[in-house]
Amino acid sequence: MTYLAKPKFHHPGLPKNDLGYTHRDYEGTVSTLCAGCGHDSITASIIQACFELSIEPHRVAKISGIGCSSKTPTYFLGNSHGFNSVHGRMPSVLTGANLANRDLIYLGVSGDGDSASIGFGQFAHALRRGVNMAYIVENNGVYGLTKGQFSATADRGSKSKRGVINTDNAIDLAAIALQLGASFVARSFSGDKHQLVPIIKAAITHKGAAFIDVISPCVAFNNHAGSTKSFDFVREHNEAVNRLDVISSRMPIEVKYEPGSVEIVEQHDGSSIALRKLAADYDVHDRTAALGFLQHHAAKGQIVTGLMYIDKNADDLHGHLDTVGVPLNSLGAEDLCPGQAALDAFNASMR
C-alpha cells in the first residue's frame, strides 16, 4: 500500500488551540479514497472535533476493521495510536485495549459492511457492554472495495449501479444501538459538518458506549438514481427548506439546514437524498420515544439525523466490572501477585 506524505512545514500564522496545536497536527497522510468520497468529509470532521477539543493526539487510540471506512484512520491523527484489525473484529480489539488502558480515548471507525454483516455480533456486544468509546460507522450501503455489492444497511427495493434490486430488509444500526443499550446514539450526514463536528465532540467526551451512524454516499457505486442511499424514492414525502444546486462531479457535498427541517440534497449524478434534522425541542433522554421517532420517519422515507439519545448518568464497562483504576501496564509485581491470603479471600468470595 502506498501512502502519500504531506509537507512537514505549514504557515506560521495558522490558528492554534489551547494546547498550541494547529489543525495540521491532527491530520494524517494524504487520502487514497475516490475524490469526493463522503468518508473524507468524515475524516475532516474528526480532525476538526479533536482540534476544537484540544486533545493531545498521543492520548487517542483509533481502531478499525476492513473496508474503505477502515482505511480512513490513516488520514487523521497521524501521531496517535492505531490498530487496523481484521474484518468485523474492530469492537473486540477495541474492548481489549480499553480494558488494558482506560486512560486513552478510543475511536472505533467501521463501515456498514464491517459492522452490519461479518461484525454484527461484535458490534452488538461492544455496545451492550458499555465500552467507553466513540464508535463511528461510515455508512454508504455498499461494499466499495469489492465493487459495489449491497451491504446489510441497503434498503429493500434499492437498485445497485448494475441495476440489481435489493430484496433483503435493511439493518438500521442506530435503532439496533438504541435497543442494545448504547448510552449515546446519533446519526448524521457526511456533508453536514456543522452538525457532525459537535456530535463527534459530544461522543468523544461521553462516558460509555457512544455510537454515530454517518450516512456517507459512495461516489463510485452508490450515487445513482434508484439507490436509497441517494434517497430519490422518498422525495415525495419531504419538503425542502433550502434546495441546493447540483455540485460538480467528484467534489465533496456539503449541506447546512435548520433543526426540525427536511433538506433534499442533490448528489453528483442528479439524484437526491432526503435528510431530516432533529428539532431543538426533541427529548434526547427518552430511549423508547427515540425508537418510535426513528420508525415513524423511516415509514415516510426520511433519514433522521442528530443526537437521538443520551444517558447523562451512564457508566462504562470498567464501572460494570469494577476493574482496577489504572492501566494494567502500570501495575507492579505486588499488585499482580498479592499473595496466597488475597487469593484465598477472592476464592471464598466466589463460593
List the helices and strands and how they pair.
Elements (H helix, E strand, L loop, with lengths): L37 H15 L7 E5 L3 H4 L9 E4 L5 H11 L4 E7 H7 L1 H9 L4 E7 L2 E2 L5 E2 L22 H8 L3 E6 L3 H13 L3 E7 L46 E5 L5 E6 L9 H12 L4 E8 L6 H5 L11 H4 L3 H10 L2
Parallel strand pairs: 1-2, 1-3, 3-4, 4-8, 7-8, 10-11
Antiparallel strand pairs: 5-6, 7-11, 9-10
Describe the model.
With 351 residues, the chain is of the alpha/beta class. The chain has a single domain (23-329), classed as Rossmann fold, CATH 3.40.50.970. 28% of the residues lie in helices and 17% in strands. Strand 10, helix 8 and strand 11 form a beta-alpha-beta unit.
Give start-end ranges of low-pLDDT stretches. Answer: 230-249
- How many individual helices? 11
CATH architecture: 3-Layer(aba) Sandwich
| Percentage of β-strand residues | 15-25%
Morphology: globular
Short description:
The chain has 11 helices and 11 strands. By secondary structure, it is of the alpha/beta class.
Keywords:
Rossmann fold; alpha/beta; 11 strands; two-stranded antiparallel sheet
